[in-house]
Automatic annotation (TrEMBL):
The keyword Oxidoreductase applies. PANTHER family: CHOLINE DEHYDROGENASE, MITOCHONDRIAL, GLUCOSE-METHANOL-CHOLINE GMC OXIDOREDUCTASE. Keywords: Oxidoreductase. This is Choline dehydrogenase. Its EC number is 1.1.99.1. It comes from Sphingobium indicum BiD32. Belongs to the GMC oxidoreductase family. GO terms for molecular function: choline dehydrogenase activity; flavin adenine dinucleotide binding. Residues 35-168 form the Glucose-methanol-choline oxidoreductase C-terminal domain. It comes from the Bacteria. The keyword Acetylation does not apply. Pfam families: GMC_oxred_C.
Length: 185
């Protein structure tokens, strides 16, 4: 199973704490597909207008660095290939001076983002911490279902869109069957 996705971009990416590149550019975004670290989402207050407290807890499990370090090495090899060297590119993040594992880990920590695929905040299951049951109904509430990536107990090894479509398709069947049972005399 893959641990890393390389996203090629025909543009620069602004990274926190690094100089904003000027002119044309390209890049590779190394995406950790199955992090071992688990974050949290909590209510800030009883006021529903209050933003939640989100802590992604990036790299709480140090093993999450290994695939990303391998991704940096692979990205550097790709950019050193003849196909890329003719474009006279230069490395911005983590930067050519970042060589040691500690330097690379520091750059990874500084630039890590969620890449739009968070899951698990309303995990499906029967155990402690599960929010919805296998029918996607919220435990303890009648008539409320959660139908999105938040019900996945763990992130899939890839983009979440296909899995969310499957969840939605299954949910439509569940809702339709529930309505059929209610309308049957």
């Amino acid at each position: 199973m893959p641990d890393l996705q390389l996203v090629f971009m025909p543009a620069h990416r602004n990274a926190s704490g690094f100089p904003i590149p000027l002119g044309h550019g390209y890049g590779i975004l190394n995406v950790l597909l199955h992090p071992k670290s688990r974050g949290s989402v909590r209510l800030a207050s009883a006021d529903p207008r209050s933003a939640p407290l989100i802590d992604p807890k990036f790299f709480a499990d140090e093993r999450d660095f290994e695939p990303l370090l391998a991704g940096i090495a692979l990205s550097r090899r790709l950019f050193a290939s003849k196909a890329f060297t003719r474009m006279e590119a230069w490395e911005i993040v983590p930067g050519p001076d970042a060589i040691t594992p500690d330097e690379l880990r520091a750059a990874i920590r500084q630039t890590a983002v969620t890449v739009h695929h968070p899951v698990g905040t309303c995990a499906m299951g029967r155990g402690k911490g599960a929010v919805v049951d296998p029918q996607l109904s919220v435990h303890g509430l009648h008539g409320l279902r959660v139908i999105d990536a938040s019900v996945m107990p763990n992130v899939v090894r890839g983009n979440t869109a296909a899995a969310v479509m499957m969840i939605a398709e299954k949910a439509s069947d569940l809702v339709r069957h529930a309505q059929d049972r209610q309308s049957t005399p």
